[in-house]
Amino acid sequence: MTYDLSTPPRKARALARDRAALTLLATVTADMPLHLAEEGACGYDPELHTGPDLFTEEPVEERAAREQVAREVCAECPVWASCLFYALDARPETGVWAGLTAEEIADIAGGCDASASSPEVA
C-alpha cells in the first residue's frame, strides 16, 4: 500500500477549508453592525430562538417545531451572516443562531478557532 504524501490528510484539509471559510465570513461581515439585537429578526420574538426558560420542560415535538420556525425567521434576517460569524466565535450553548442550533454550530466550529481567523486590524 502506498500513500500520497503530497496531499494533506483529510482532517488537515477540512481544518484549512474551515479556517478559509471563517476568514471569508469575517471579511464579508466586517462592516456589518455588531449590535444584532437591534437589527436581528429574532428581536421580535426572542423566545422563539431561545426556547422556554430553564425551569420549563419543552417536549421534543414542540422544540422541533419551534426550531423550524426560528430557522425560517433566520432565513429572512438582514444580519444573518453577522449572526453566523458571532455564533461561530461565541459558540452558544443554547438557542437558534443564523438558522442553526447550538449543537450544529458546535459541529461546524469543532476544532476551528473562529477568533483566530478574524482579519488583522492594522
Brief overview, please?
This protein has 122 residues and is mainly alpha-helical. It has helices at 10-29, 36-39, 46-50, 60-75, 80-90, 102-109; strands at residues 96-97, 100-101.
Throw out a few tags for this protein.
mainly alpha, two-stranded antiparallel ribbon, 122 residues, 3% strand, 6 helices
Task: Give an overview in words.
With about 120 residues, the protein is mainly alpha-helical. It has 6 helices and 2 strands, in the order αααααββα. The protein has helices spanning about 10-30, 35-40, 45-50, 60-75, 80-90, 100-110, and strands at about 95, 100. A two-stranded antiparallel ribbon has the order 1-2. Helix 1 (about 10-30) packs across helix 5 (about 80-90). The chain is globular, with a radius of gyration of 17 Å. The N and C termini lie far apart (about 50 Å). The model is unreliable at about 115-120 (pLDDT under 50).
Q: Could you tell me the mean pLDDT?
A: 76
Helical content (DSSP H or I, runs of 4+):
40-55%
Count of individual beta strands: 2
Query: Quick one: overall form?
Result: globular
Order of strands, widest sheet: 1-2
**DSSP helical segment count:** 6
Order of helices and strands: HHHHHEEH
Main sheet, how many strands, which sense, barrel? 2 strands, antiparallel
CA(first)-CA(last) distance: 49 Å
Sheet-strand content, in percent, reads under 5%
Class by alpha and beta content: mainly alpha
Unreliable spans are: 113-122
Radius of gyration: 17 Å
